[in-house]
Amino acid sequence: MSKRVRAPRQESRPEPERQNRSRAVSELLPAIGGAAFRKFGFVQSSIVSRWPEIVGEKWAGASAPESIRFPPGQKSAGVLTLTVRGAHAPMMQHVAPEIIERVNRFFGYAAVAKLTIRQGEVATWRVPAAPPSERPVPPELGNELKGIADPELRAVLESLAAGVAATRGLPKIG
User: Does the pTM of the predicted model rise above 0.85?
Assistant: First the structure.
């Protein structure tokens, strides 16, 4: 007679989440976008999407960030590569220290130490205009807002004031 060898008993493990399930596009995009941005050296994808806010409309119209390369094992003292329209390259060289300062202020630490300029075609940036106010703000809420010089900030605050004026009582939950 031969001896029977039993397979060792396997512990029951929770079944892993299915990978081939249907998912919302919004669930997929951050992972796809994040991987693509990391591939091109961007720590945060927001430097690309918020470029006009970082450097200003004038310079954002002539340049676009291409990549940030850091020394091995570090996340500071990187080299920011910009794509700049041909005739704007000398101007961008003159304002390079200010661009480095603004990018570092955006990151909150000295992420960029050097700027490299590459000539090429740059996509145009369009900043959406603030939507017009739907209804006038009541005078008791909007008198202080007239002194605000920034039209976008004033529009946002007027919208907030109109929302506050439209509510009555405590908010209902549920």
Answer: no
